[in-house]
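Input sequence (77 aa), recorded before submission:
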Amino acid sequence: MFCPGYGEIGGPELEMTDWDVYQERSMKGGLAFTEEKLRYILSDHFECIELRKMRENSSEDPTFGVPFLWTSLWRKK
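Predicted structure, token format:
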């Protein structure tokens, strides 16, 4: 899932509300979620163990990492 505020380096360019997406019938390349929104959406069924932005890795690193994506670990309630 995308983090908000990273349009200039690969995240979604536009900040859209749920209503905007419904009216436009498009996510315009992706939706960004705040930490609070993700916790709210998932909290009925999952307990958050960890939620953070990915660590940025260089192209030489063996693992993928960009700061405009969330990484998380959740436990089913």
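Checked by second reader. The first helix runs from residue 18 to 24.
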